[in-house]
Write a structure and sequence with these properties.
7-stranded mixed β-sheet; D-Maltodextrin-Binding Protein, domain 2; alpha+beta; 12 helices; Dipeptide-binding Protein, domain 1; globular; Dipeptide-binding Protein, domain 3; 5-stranded mixed β-sheet
Length: about 500
């Protein structure tokens, strides 16, 4: 019997006879506890450069793999595997000194060669990393000794430390890591049972502070109701992100559970293929934006939770501006825009939507709303894997629904080759110039301006910002509440005896 099977059977037998004890009665924490995390996002594979999906970030980022820098749950960027670094006066050369005493799970020491190898994995032609373009200014990586990495750039990159937080440092002796790992993090991969669960064990050779628990098991669900039931029956300790407000009534006000709402970066959007008619027409895009009652949509999906947004930028980004007034709900204006664009009788398009909640419900809402202005929506439901191939890779679509979880991802609108194909030369220049900025203030100014232009262009239809709601058993604490980039650091999670 596998480790995961034994744990599940043991949990079931214990919980059949032992009542849950709220935190108010707990006196201390078990340093060897097993933390059971419930999630809807199983990784497609274990390599974040190979199209593994957001589930790999949730389980592995900061837990199994580390980077030179870490994006904290509070949104700051802090050194991780870097002891120190310097930047040349012209901003084109970064010199990093690595921390001492860091080893991979295999026992090999961390060296500069591993860092070089890891960066080149992300920037390689075959890489599927969403941050590949952000590192395109790198022209050379030198390793003068085992502790020093020198990166040269073709242009200033004020976000380089931030962008490097996306580059997991992998042992250069590793080859295919789609089903295995060799990181430097506080946990090792103990077992992955595809379609069911993934177990991480505390790494006793970890260079940093030891985890507050002994083991973490991610259990995967395809249905939000089943996930909620798992927490209600104590089969899991934490739900990383609640997907339905209806379920919160089961937990809110119940002393056996803790409900926490953090700051989300997950945007639900109707993305058009801006390369093809009629979505290459700004008036059409603005018409569809005005045709959707987003406040009613948000309420129908999330009740009193979540936030309306007028662009791709959430309030946690420094270049946020309240743009909800741009193309606000106005069906009459939507019809006028369609007529001016040459579609007085509307048009028909196919909406490819992922098969998991809340996308099918959102698609039905949009279908009803757009019909009111004469636009017919044919809904085509596809799997997450099909979405990645058809939409993200092949750009073979008219419009699609998707949630974008990444932090500070306005930069994707500066890439005409990105799946939605938005190409405004002014925005491309502003985003490129922001990265070459000499100060944070200059970067913020340029990205704020780009944000406003993208909104006026209705480049996509930004429907709402998800709430970030974590629910746990009351005897569990120390988990992250914001979940930036879907990361979910497990090493500070504690369970009371």
């Amino acid at each position: 019997m596998s480790l995961i099977s034994r744990r599940i059977l043991l949990t079931a037998s214990l919980l059949a006879s032992v009542a849950f004890a709220p935190a108010a009665f707990a006196q201390d924490f078990d340093p060897n506890a097993t933390i059971r995390i419930g999630s809807l996002y199983e990784p497609q594979n274990l390599d974040n450069t190979a199209g593994a999906g957001q589930g790999i970030n949730e389980a592995f980022n900061g837990n199994v793999y580390e980077a030179l820098f870490q994006l904290t749950d509070a949104g700051s960027v802090e050194p991780a595997l870097v002891a120190d670094y310097t930047v040349s006066e012209d901003g084109l050369t970064y010199t990093f000194t690595l921390k001492d005493g860091v080893t991979f799970h295999s026992g090999d020491p961390l060296t500069a060669a591993d860092v070089k190898y890891s960066i080149e994995r992300v920037t390689a032609e075959t890489s599927k990393s969403s941050r590949k373009r952000s590192l395109s200014t790198i022209t050379g990586i030198e390793t003068p000794d085992d502790k020093t990495v020198v990166i040269t750039l073709s242009a200033r990159s004020i976000s380089l430390p931030y962008n490097l937080s996306y580059v997991w440092i992998v042992n250069d002796a590793a080859t295919d890591i789609t089903a295995t790992e060799d990181g430097t993090g506080p946990y090792t991969l103990e077992e992955w049972r595809r379609g069911s669960a993934l177990a991480l064990a505390r790494f006793d050779g970890y260079w940093g502070t030891a985890p507050s628990n002994g083991e973490v098991i991610y259990t995967y669900f395809t249905d939000a109701t089943a996930l909620n039931n798992a927490l209600l029956t104590n089969a899991v300790d934490v739900i990383t992100s609640v997907q339905s407000p209806d379920s919160l009534a089961q937990f809110a006000g119940n002393p056996s559970f803790t409900v926490t709402e953090g700051a989300s970066t997950t945007k639900e959007l109707l993305a058009y293929n801006d390369r093809v008619a009629p979505f290459d027409n700004v008036q059409v895009r603005k018409a569809l934006a005005r045709a959707v009652d987003k406040a009613r949509l948000l309420n129908s999906i999330w009740g009193d939770y979540g936030t309306l947004i007028g662009s791709f930028v959430p309030p946690t980004d420094p270049w946020y501006v309240d743009l909800t007034g741009v193309d606000a709900y106005d069906p009459d204006s939507a019809k006028a825009f369609l007529a001016e664009a040459g579609y007085p009788d509307g048009f028909t398009f196919t909406l490819d939507t992922p098969d998991y909640d809340p996308h099918p419900l959102v698609a039905q809402f949009l279908q009803t709303e757009l019909a009111k202005v004469g636009v017919t929506v044919n809904i085509n439901i596809i799997t997450a894997n099909e979405w990645y191939t058809k939409i993200y890779q092949e750009h073979n679509f008219e419009a699609t629904l998707q949630e974008h979880v990444n932090h500070r991802d306005i930069v994707f609108y500066g890439n005409p080759d990105f799946y939605w194909g938005y190409n405004n030369p002014e925005v491309v220049k502003l985003i490129a110039d922001s990265e070459a900025a000499g100060s944070i203030d200059e970067q913020t100014e340029k990205l704020t301006e780009a944000n406003k232009i993208i909104a006026e262009d209705a480049a996509s239809n930004w429907l709402y910002l998800y709430p970030q709601i974590v629910v746990s058993a009351a005897n569990v604490s120390g988990y992250p509440v914001n979940g930036l980039n879907s990361q979910f650091f497990a090493y500070e999670i504690k369970k009371a005896n």
